[in-house]
Specification:
172 residues; mainly alpha; 2 domains
């Protein structure tokens, strides 16, 4: 069961008109935190993300069924979306068995390095045009204040990198 804070954050995202994947991101973050806290482990980074997405669908986030996924994954996604509305109780025995199995797994797949590797690998599978379009959309939905803040941060980062770069070259 997702924490109340997570459900509230997802609801806030929905009110702000953010995309379903942004709303689902709250559940993925929660899942990563649960693994880091040692509540259970995961076999891979993808598994942690999949558990988060499953919880999001069950909480009523309208996530589309993945296009390129296997038949089993599509079936599971549809099942999760359906479970959001059918109101049946989760089997305690099954939930306990799932947690018991996950407790034997590692927390390493949600380390910073592992998540970074996963993000890079996923990004590399997308075309440059696709990545560019996503960045443009993000900038457009940020709002004037958000864009201004992002520009200031970028300028600060550039200045810091320039300083660091200058020192680095002077040392050689």
């Amino acid at each position: 069961m997702p924490e109340r804070k997570t459900l509230e954050r997802a609801a806030r995202d929905k009110r702000q008109g953010k995309s379903a994947s942004t709303q689902a991101g709250e559940f993925v973050h929660e899942e990563i935190d649960r693994v880091r806290e040692g509540k259970h482990g995961v076999r891979s980074t993808k598994q942690a993300i999949a558990i988060g997405l499953s919880k999001a669908r069950r909480a009523g986030v309208k996530l589309a069924t993945p296009k390129k996924a296997s038949a089993a994954t599509k079936r599971k996604a549809a099942q999760d979306s359906h479970a959001a509305h059918d109101g049946h109780a989760k089997s305690a025995t099954r939930a306990k068995a799932a947690t018991k199995a996950l407790k034997k797994e590692s927390a390493k797949p949600v380390s910073g390095a592992a998540l970074s590797r996963n993000a890079s690998k996923t990004a590399s599978k997308r075309s440059a045009a696709d990545r560019s379009a996503a960045a443009k959309k993000a900038a457009a939905t940020k709002g004037a204040a958000g864009r201004s803040a992002a520009a200031k941060k970028a300028a600060r980062t550039r200045a810091a990198n320039k300083r660091a770069g200058g020192q680095h070259h002077a040392a050689h």
